[in-house]
Amino acid sequence: MNGENPRQIGARVQRFEDTRLLTGSARYIDDIRLPNMLHLTIARSQMAHGKIVEIDTSMLEDSDFPTWVFTGEDTRGLALRAHQDYPEMQYSEQPLLALDTVRFVGDPVAAVLAEDPYLAEDAAELVFVDIDPLPVVATMDQARDSTVPPIFEGWKNNTFIERQMKGGDLEAARQAAAHVIKRTYRNQRQTGVPMECRGVVAHFNDADRVLTVWSSTQMPHLVRTYIAEELDLPESRIRVIAPDVGGGFGIKGQVFGEEVLVAWLALKTGRPVKWIEDRREHLIASIHARDHEHTLEAYVAADGTVLGLKADISVDVGAYSTYPFTAAGDPGMAAKVLPGPYTIGAYEATFRALASNKCPLGTYRGVARPSAVFSQERLMDEIAREIGMDPFEFRLKNIIRDFPYKNVLGFTYDPGSYAESLEKMQALLADDIAAASASKQSKDKRIGVGFACFIEQTAHGTPDFTRRRVPIETGYVAARVEMNPDGEVVIGLGLQSHGQGHETVMAQVAADALGIDPANVFVRHGDTLTSPYSVGTWGSRGGPLGGGAVHMASLQIADKLKAIAGHLLQAEAGDIILADGKAALANDPSRSIEIRKLARAALRNLDQVPEGMTPGLVAEFSLDGPKDGTYANAVHAAVVEIDVPTSKLTLKRFVVVEDCGTILNPMIVDGQVRGGVVQGIGSALLEHFVYDSEGQPLTTSFADYLMPLAPEIPDVEVHHIETPTPLTPLGAKGLGEGGAIGPAAAIANAVSDALGTEVASTPLNASAIWDLSAHLRSA
Amino acid sequence: MRPAAFEYHKATSLEHALTLLQEFGEDGRPLAGGQSLVPMMNLRLARPGHLVDINGLGLDSIEERGDVLHIGALVRHQRYFDDPIIARRLPAFLEAVHWIGHPTIRRHGTLGGSISHADPTAELPAICVLYDAQILVASTAGERRIAAADFFANAYVTTLEPGEMVTGVEFPFPPENNSGAFLEQAERRGDFALAAIGVSINHDTSTITSASIVCAGARLVPTRAPEVEAALVGRALSAPEARAAGTQFSENINPVGDHAASADYRRGLIAELTTRAIERACEKAREHS
């Protein structure tokens, strides 16, 4: 699978992009400066819900510098539309600038431009917006209450959509159960917080009539298509470039109204326009995540077999449906993945997306799976406790062992190492489990061990998207590989790399197929002009599908090189091996020719190629994912120490056993896992976007919105098991998101163990630990 | 997150600074380390029309002046770590510095800036109140001194008049037999305190002769515990009353509750941290006696 000379795939190749990123030569969106450029500040609603009575911009006329201002009247008809094609879905759209109603604090109201970013911010303060307040939907309970007026006219309630998924005979499972265990679990609203906020620059060039849009996005082609459709332009005249992007984590895996707005403003004003989002704006008005509530009911046989699971899933998705994954993205994903790695034979989920006067919810690393795994793995611990089984033994009893496995919803799992991972983790934690047990003698200092076992569907193919009926219909990745006459290779990658290390990994993959050094492979990405159409970087598909596409395209070039080498060496192409920059006979390496000479032949000295061979060394391959995807699996474990009198929690240890199939670059895999775990620790302990009862955001800076910092994070231990999948060309499964999926569940289980009490929600900040440990103080 | 327009003035002398501050009144602010003022300006929560940069004025000595330690307004927090007098004579002060923000904040932030900002969770205002410090204030009208207890009027509000500026702080030395401790709890290392407790005790070989206790983070200003302090006088240095004192303080103080921590949790935290701080101060005292 790894080519004939697999020395690069699996090697610890240092990241090529790091030189640029670590020495300050990376170029981000704010580094783009064009002559004559205007700077945009977006005046945003300061009220959560209300009718716009008046937008008075007359004070701008008195300012002593030039300004431009546009409101919803100017952009009427332009909107973000993210509808799911189900009759149950209530239609909504978000105008680029509010038309007559604002629906969350941060809703764009006016676009204000000036020739300097400071002046633009001053000018935006001069826009006076008179808003008549409307009742605010500020909580999930209010959103679920059918007597609360809907936030969209014509809606019957505040539910974007409610649907069901089911499989197996749940009633039979209920009848056969010796134990029925029901719990409700809650995960807080948070956000993803890339280091670089959003930003867009747009410029229309009169000479070639091309609109160039630079955006800090994970999906340049989708941005191009959306702008083209909304502004009625041919896609051939739009070029979208994602320059260096300072983190995305899914937050930038949506098309935003601001991207269309800035493009429209550049066309309207005839000048380049730049919008750089600030941190406060990013926290209140980009994309929020999680905000789930799950009520689960498990039907368990006397011997500990989980026979069936019933789920009721609510997600507060905020004021608008987001593009392209829609309001139903999170609740649908939670419903789909809750059966998890267990042999549950009957399942029924009701899931709904609720509208509220809050920032719209979108994708963030893990997408619903951190919440689903939190609920699933908290419940598994509670069941084990109730029926008196060890939590490891209970899971091992229910774990899937035979592959391929068709799950209760009809999804087929490819081979993984579920039981093996659990057993390995059990061994790794033996000492901690003993210490935790001993600590139960103390009321003051408690140690707890918790773990979470999960699978992650990655790299899923088109059918999985078709089923969802969302604006994104597919998830393939394309790559174009081209060898130049000097033997150097350029890859036009449909993915966009915002930290993943694609410039290195894809070079490794191509290098193996072509027998060259990865340093001779230049990976271009994030530019619709240089990369074939793809849907962007998200959904843990860069390695399996992007790597697979590069591999397949590279093999086409390798075949051609071998044919030329065979011709020149008077041997069969099939006997040629490409390695170390040479094409050589497998059984006689002394007979060889340099690959760069073959490239020169293919592109220039065509008299040297076999008769009839077409000139050129370029190949393109678009790789769709397997129908049900390929399932990565992992077990995460946390060891916590809690100082009960002060509620101070210390994370003593965090251990990951993970299986992402073939490992393409171990350093990058470890980095991905650790980065994800750190974000998961944030979800578990700290990060909480808080609104008050009027829908006013309370955590609008890093003083209040708390991310995990180095002192809070232990060294994350990562252990690997490799079960290559037969479903992708390199045997790789996705792993970008997995690190973020397990920590909330593992840490909550550890806290539950430490305090000897149930844990039903996150974040487990000091106040939460205080409330959870009341029984230890009173005793 | 860009500040509103302001004019920048580089003061060349204290007199120059005071003249400028007098001229600008409410619209002028001294700029020292900028660790609180500049973020507030970027958020447009503060909009001074004029910034008077006082960084070149000296005001950065730490010196014994008879029975007080004088610390200039421009002394950066990092300096305290290396100061032998503070370590020996004001032990709770030194412990508090460890809880101030992060290295960058400690290298830039100043004493005058911290107390003028009057963040209710900040360590140095609490230390001033704990040690009954005198705040030295100057304006074009002259100098005056304000007792720390009278300096902090409300959250982010002091009794400084427009045109006035802090030039230094005087900490009266406690007697030689003094011990102290400062404990804090925050969600993350370096965060705003959920609650912080400072304790300073004077003692003989076996008993507490007088005590000061202060709490930051629980109320709008640093809060002392006079009843608890009085109750500790004459008690054994083995600190058997520490828990009772902690409980008493937590019952008296009536802390605020907000989204960062409930009032109930803060009360519990105050009880525990007070207990531990008294025990710690007494333990250090026993080691030294």
Automatic annotation (TrEMBL), chain A:
<feature type="domain" description="Aldehyde oxidase/xanthine dehydrogenase a/b hammerhead">
    <location>
        <begin position="23"/>
        <end position="135"/>
    </location>
</feature>
<dbReference type="InterPro" id="IPR016208">
    <property type="entry name" value="Ald_Oxase/xanthine_DH-like"/>
</dbReference>
<protein>
    <submittedName>
        <fullName>Xanthine dehydrogenase family protein molybdopterin-binding subunit</fullName>
    </submittedName>
</protein>
<keyword id="KW-0500">Molybdenum</keyword>
<dbReference type="InterPro" id="IPR046867">
    <property type="entry name" value="AldOxase/xan_DH_MoCoBD2"/>
</dbReference>
<dbReference type="Pfam" id="PF20256">
    <property type="entry name" value="MoCoBD_2"/>
</dbReference>
<dbReference type="Pfam" id="PF02738">
    <property type="entry name" value="MoCoBD_1"/>
</dbReference>
<dbReference type="InterPro" id="IPR000674">
    <property type="entry name" value="Ald_Oxase/Xan_DH_a/b"/>
</dbReference>
<dbReference type="InterPro" id="IPR008274">
    <property type="entry name" value="AldOxase/xan_DH_MoCoBD1"/>
</dbReference>
<dbReference type="Pfam" id="PF01315">
    <property type="entry name" value="Ald_Xan_dh_C"/>
</dbReference>
TrEMBL record, chain B:
<dbReference type="InterPro" id="IPR051312">
    <property type="entry name" value="Diverse_Substr_Oxidored"/>
</dbReference>
<feature type="domain" description="FAD-binding PCMH-type">
    <location>
        <begin position="1"/>
        <end position="176"/>
    </location>
</feature>
<dbReference type="InterPro" id="IPR005107">
    <property type="entry name" value="CO_DH_flav_C"/>
</dbReference>
<keyword id="KW-0274">FAD</keyword>
<dbReference type="InterPro" id="IPR002346">
    <property type="entry name" value="Mopterin_DH_FAD-bd"/>
</dbReference>
<keyword id="KW-0285">Flavoprotein</keyword>
<keyword id="KW-0560">Oxidoreductase</keyword>
<dbReference type="Pfam" id="PF00941">
    <property type="entry name" value="FAD_binding_5"/>
</dbReference>
<dbReference type="InterPro" id="IPR016166">
    <property type="entry name" value="FAD-bd_PCMH"/>
</dbReference>
<protein>
    <submittedName>
        <fullName>Xanthine dehydrogenase family protein subunit M</fullName>
    </submittedName>
</protein>
<dbReference type="Pfam" id="PF03450">
    <property type="entry name" value="CO_deh_flav_C"/>
</dbReference>
